[in-house]
Sequence to fold (82 residues):
Amino acid sequence: SERAEIYKLRVTDKLSMSVIAATMKRSKSTISRELNRNTSEKHKVYLDTSDETARQRRAEGKGRFKRISAVTIENVKQGLEQ
Fold:
């Protein structure tokens, strides 16, 4: 996976985030976010749990609009149609 490749390049090959980003054709900020989200304070990589953690973050993020009432959603839709 890309996640495993990022960690290999960073930990094993000791490459900078800029070089990793260029190698993988990703933004440097994407590489930085990935490393920050799934690394401990002592720079231990949580590769075994990082996929599950990412899935949990994605699921939690999609729940934001569940708190909005159906009436509010309908009003917004009507406003967009005008």
Q: What stands out?
A: Residues 63 and 77 are 19 Å apart (CA to CA).
